[in-house]
Amino acid sequence: MVEPASQSRTSQREIFGWAMFDVANSAYTTVVITIVFSAFFVNHLVPEGSDWGNSYWGIAMILSNLAAMILAPFLGTLCDLTGRKKRFLIGNMLLCALATGLLYFVGPGGIYWAIGLIVISNTTWMLSEVFCASFLTDLATPENMGLLSGIGWGVGYLGGLLSLVLVLFGVITASPERDLALYIHQNQQAMLVVAAFFVVVSIPTMLWLRDRPVREPIDTHWRSVWHHTWLRLTHCWQLSQQLPVLLHFFLVFTLYSAGMAIVIKFFGIYVDSELNLSAGEKTGVFLALQLSAFVGAVSFGLLETRIGSKATIFLTLMWWIMGVLSIYFLAPLAQLFGVEESRLFMVSAVVAGAGLGSTQSASRTIVGLLTPQGFSAMMFGFWGLFGRIAAIIGSASFAVVADLVSVQQALLVILAFFVAGAMLVLLLPISQGIRQAREFSN
Asked: Transmembrane residues, as ranges (predicted)?
């Protein structure tokens, strides 16, 4: 078991080092998964004439999530047994950066190389996110956990904003219509920039974040770890009896996270395929989205300390629902208000984006509150597991509807996930779940 947070000293420098990892890893998900490379993948790497560009990208997302699902419980158990979360955090960061940098060598038609490298980089990025989240119970108290999580996620969007500015203004300056070869080369160079950004900005994490000691040494041979992992997985029924509120939250989280996964993984593709925006307008939308996500994460994090994590998730999901509806009815709303669709879309994206980080941050807080002491890596591993299931469900459903019907109609898939999640999250007895976690620890 890992030493409880209350018995270990946490410095402001360590909290800063932890938060800087959120800054560092945001470059990957912002530039590679959400905005730049995803659209480049569909429009320039997928073989010309193919009608399954969204599905190819969906395959990469599904495979990487399946890999993370398989590895997360095993590595989470290993971390709980050894207390070496930092080593796995840094190791996965380096692997993600390496695979991202290797995308520099993938050109048009290299679809399978691209899928393979995205699977490796996205898998290791997701695993590093789980390990980063598992430090929350070491660094925070139940009273300030929501605020600390919100600040971490908020400054993470500043990292996404900074990396996006570097890429869109410092690297990708060519237009595909004017100089396609240069545009392709610059997109490849952008992957090197993202890889370097991830490593360099993670230096404070490598220097100042520290592991907590384990109470007693346990055999960590891989067979023993698999045995412990299997025991934990087969004890899900016992876990559901002792921590039913946490289990119910994981199921609700899976629903609304499927909607968020679609937004994160297909936003850039949607903007490129459905909206007739200039390069400058696209850049403005992307930057405004990152800025609104930062403001939303910090603002809702402060609000969360007053109204609680459950109410925060419900409010942010309602926020999401309004944003998605405004994008779905973009054309008639633009006519009604007498404004250009591009301007109204930017407003809608800003509204929806404000809920992105705050929903994820409040979810992370609830997992921390409902997790017994000494089981943080395991429970956040399960959190990652359900998040991966959500991403598979969301990616598959959106990609199929988008390719068979239209990307516009596929927005209804996102809406359905958010509505279901908002309705069910209100039924969760969080206070009861906190008591269950304390009783489980005792």
From this structure: 15-42, 54-76, 88-106, 112-136, 148-170, 190-209, 245-271, 283-303, 312-331, 343-359, 380-401, 407-428
Polymer length in residues for the chain: 442
- Tokens representing residue 38 in the block: 């995803």
- As a whole number of angstroms, the distance between CA 243 and CA 258 comes to 23
- 171-203 exposure pattern, b = at least 16 Cβ within 10 A, e = fewer: bbebebeeeeeebbbbbbebbbbbbebbbebbe
Please check the confidence at residue 14 and state whether its pLDDT lies above 60.
yes
Block residue for tokens 């080593």: 87
Encoded tokens for 37: 């490379």
Backbone angles phi, psi at 214, to 5 degrees: -85, 155
Give the tens place of pLDDT for each residue, 73-126: 777 777 777 777 899 899 999 999 999 999 999 999 899 999 999 999 999 999
| Tokens read off for 54 | 């969204």
The Cα 427–Cα 418 span in angstroms is 15
For residues 289-306, one letter each, b for 16 or more C-beta atoms within 10 angstroms of the residue's C-beta and e for the rest, the string is bbbbbbbbbbebbebbbe
- Where does residue 216 rank: exposed (0-12), middle (13-18), buried (19+ CB within 10 A)? exposed
Phi, psi values for residue 216, rounded to 5°: -150, 140
Q: What is the dihedral of CA 367, 368, 374, 375, to 10 degrees?
A: 10
Maximum average pLDDT range among 94-103, 162-171, 237-246, 433-442: 94-103
Q: Which CATH number fits domain 12-213+220-441: 3.30.460.10, 1.20.1250.20, 3.40.50.300, 1.10.150.240?
A: 1.20.1250.20
Token pair for 342: 């591009």
Per-residue pLDDT reduced to its tens digit, 380-407: 767 877 888 998 899 889 888 888 888 8
**Phi, psi for 112 (deg, rounded to 5):** -75, -35
Judged by DSSP in three states, 2 sits in strand
Q: How many CB atoms lie within 10 A of CB 226?
A: 13
Domains of the chain: which residue ranges? 12-213+220-441
Residues 406-438 pLDDT 10s? 888 989 999 999 999 999 999 999 999 988 888
